Amino acid sequence: MATDLKSKVAREAATLLYFGAEKEYKQAKTRAAQTLGTHFLPSNLEVALELDKIAEENEGENRKERLVEMRREALQVMKVIDDYCPVLIGSVWRGTIRNGSDIDIAAYADDPQEIVNILKAQGIKLLKTAWTTVNKHGRTLSSLHLHAETTAKHGLEVVVRTSEEKREKRKCEIFGDEMKGLRTKSLEKLLKDNPTQCFIPA
Fold first, then answer.
1. Residue 124: predicted pLDDT
2. In this structure, what DSSP letter does residue 15 have?
3. Scanning 29, 191, 198, 199, which has the fewest C-beta atoms within 10 Å of its C-beta?
4. Distances (CA, A) of 63 to 56, 80, 99
5. pLDDT band at 1 (very low <50, low <70, confident <90, very high)
6. Residue-wise burial string across 114-150, b where 16 or more C-beta atoms lie within 10 A, e elsewhere
7. CATH no. of 62-193
8. Is 108 exposed, middle or buried (0-12, 13-18, 19+ CB in 10 A)?
9. Dihedral angle at the C-alpha atoms of 142, 116, 130, 138, nearest 10 degrees?
10. If DSSP codes are grouped into helix, strand and coil, which group holds residue 143?
11. What SS3 state is found at 85?
12. Among residues of the chain, what percentage have pLDDT more than 90?
């Protein structure tokens, strides 16, 4: 009974997220549980898996084509800033894109302006730049978020972190696993061998 209810809440929460009625997982789960009259809350992973199913149901084959296109565009950007250890993360890495998904890339530089200059020199127009500060294990970490649009009109976000964060492992708050991502050479190989491969915890 509890399992069935959690599955229903997961589906409802995923529906709210997919159609934009909610932006955050926590709020989506709470609202879904209220709608279904239960206190059973699914994990973020359970909601994410349902969200992936809904995207597949609604977007079909076009979704796979868009994924490959976004991965190719990510590779182009990563090659340009390859000296800064770029890593493809987010839904384009995972293979769980949906309408409105961005290409998310993490890069590492002690002077973020260097990456800004390279992207601009390549004709990538930055739409917005914003600093974000978080407290992690007693440390204050700042990162620069660069927002742009690709040639194919996909959203692009490059997060520039300090070089000392390069080797730090990050846990994914949604899927619960380590956020490994794909480096330039790995992404290049993936696009040759299995361009639509997904990276979702079993």
1. 93
2. H
3. 198
4. 7, 26, 8
5. low
6. ebbebbeeeebeeeeeeeeeeeeeeeeeebbebebeb
7. 3.30.460
8. buried
9. 0
10. strand
11. coil
12. 86
- Alpha-helical (H) ranges within the chain are 2-18, 25-35, 44-80, 90-94, 112-121, 184-193
Q: How far apart are CA 145 and CA 170, in angstroms?
A: 17
Tokens representing 94? Answer: 């995972």
Half-sphere exposure at residue 104, Cβ-oriented, CA atoms within 13 angstroms: 14
Q: What is the pLDDT of residues 139-167, one digit of tens each?
A: 888 999 999 999 999 999 999 999 989 88
Full strand arrangement of the beta sheet holding 126-136: 126-136, 139-149, 155-161, 102-108, 87-89, 182-183
- Specify the DSSP class assigned to residue 43: -
| pLDDT for 192 beyond 70 | yes
Q: What pLDDT shows up at residue 128?
A: 95
For 127, the token pair is 């739409």
Domain boundaries, the chain: 2-42, 62-193
DSSP string, 147-169: EEE-TTS-EEEEEEE-GGGTT--
Beta bridge partners of 89: 104
